[in-house]
Amino acid sequence: MSDRVSVPAASLIGLLILWVVAAALTADPQILPSPVSLLGPIWKETLSGKLPYHLGQTLIRVAWAFSLAMLLGLVLGLAMGRSERLDRWLDPWLVVFLNLPALVLIVLCYLWIGLNETAAIVAVTLNKIPNVTTVIREGARSLSPDLDAMAKVYRMGFVARMRHVLLPQLAPFIAAAARSGIAVIWKIVLVVEFLGRSNGIGFQIHLYFQLFDVRMVLVYALSFITVMLIVEWAVLQPWERRVRRWRAA
Amino acid sequence: MIDVEIRQKAFNGVQVLCDVAFSIASGETVAILGPSGIGKSTLLRIVAGIDTAFDGRVTRPERMAIVFQEPTLLPWRSALLNLTLVHEGLGDAAAREMLAKVGLANKADQFPGQLSLGQQRRLALARAFAGQPELLIMDEPFVSLDPETAETMLALTEALIAEARPSTLFVTHARPEAERLADRILELRGSPARLA
């Protein structure tokens, strides 16, 4: 129990110390400001409401893209893992989309759909679906045929079969896709904002990049990393522990 | 009334079953006897409707239950939920009563992984009878159990069948088991397997 908290905490403090030392050696706050010197600007941006506003915009995009990518990837992965025929047909598409650079998809979405919210979310979602599909397909291939047969003979309904037979078997794969997904998605969201939105963390980073303000770039980047760490620890990890409960019992 | 008429069943061009036809009257227990690997499980899977790629026809009732060689439970759900989730209309009270009948009254909230293999088998048996099946199918339900546990299972199965009187089809390679439980014994022999 204590290891679960103390080890990551110590590891993060180690990273912080490394940063302090590097900042001291650089001795140029224009290039690498020390973490302490960021606290003032973070506080100021929070009070002025700018940081919460841009953070909120980015989080909304992350939430949309994440939910859509997980849902579509789950359906597609499940279908491809269960049907060999469908898998043979769709696998080449998957390879194409897996190897399409995120930047290309983003630019194309902006050109085709326009510089709007829909294009931004579609671009991020399309970038992530292939990864989710690949992971879920692996899970769907390893589903137990015995449980399938059991559910069939006892004529379990579709919903019950999904919820109590299939999804619990897929849970480790869903968790893996979700955790790698959220990390990739927020990075792509920043690129999308950088290129074509007028708010969000990515937009702010773009702004301060043009002003060569390393400190403000770090302020925005770090606030978002903090939020994502909280999501990981407060939401994803507890959920994963809950669905794994039966293994530990 | 269950009617089975299999003209032939092949795997990758190799015939496994040929001209296997029989029927089971309601309340009758039929045992399929034969050596390992002859196609007994294949026959059961066809009768149960799991395997539909065969030449022939099977008439089966609406409510069916199956007991596999392995318990085949939902390891992520409690013993009680393993009954109520599989049988949608089954209430908690009826499920607990069924658990009590197989001697698992105090295990309702445990996960299958916390039960012994013998208890898991009994849970699978409880699941089968909880739906008041018209047709019960059992695939070697007493193999790989120590003699004492096998005897408990056998006696329990006998009692449950006597009480619920489903049509029962079960497969075994042990003649004493077949003679004890079944009203009628069918033997599979040869390659492709036929009824002897």
Automatic annotation (TrEMBL), chain A:
Where does the protein end up? Cell membrane
Sorted alphabetically, the keyword list is:
Cell membrane, Membrane, Transmembrane, Transmembrane helix, Transport
Its chief place of residence is: membrane
Taxonomically, which superkingdom? Bacteria
User: Which GO cellular component does the record give, naming just one?
Assistant: plasma membrane
Asked whether the UniProt record includes Ion transport among its keywords, one would answer no
InterPro entries per UniProt: MetI-like (IPR000515), MetI-like_sf (IPR035906)
Gene3D superfamilies associated with the record: MetI-like (1.10.3720.10)
Which topology term describes how it sits in the membrane?
Answer: Multi-pass membrane protein
> What biological-process terms (Gene Ontology) are attached?
transmembrane transport
The residue ranges of the ABC transmembrane type-1 domain are 55-237
Protein name, UniProt field: NitT/TauT family transport system permease protein
Q: Which family does it belong to?
A: Belongs to the binding-protein-dependent transport system permease family.
List where the protein spans the membrane.
62-81, 93-113, 217-236
Task: Tell me if Transmembrane helix is a UniProt keyword of this record.
Answer: yes
Automatic annotation (TrEMBL), chain B:
Question: GO MF annotations for this entry?
Answer: ATP binding; ATP hydrolysis activity
Which keywords annotate this record?
ATP-binding, Nucleotide-binding, Transport
Q: Name one Pfam family in it.
A: ABC_tran
Q: Give the protein's recorded name.
A: NitT/TauT family transport system ATP-binding protein
Species whose genome carries this gene: Poseidonocella pacifica
Q: Which InterPro entries match?
A: AAA+_ATPase, ABC_transporter-like_ATP-bd, ABC_transporter-like_CS, ABC_transporter_ATP-bind, P-loop_NTPase
**Do the record's keywords include ATP-binding?**
yes
Residue spans crossing the bilayer: none
Q: Which family does it belong to?
A: Belongs to the ABC transporter superfamily.
Domain (ABC transporter) spans: 2-195
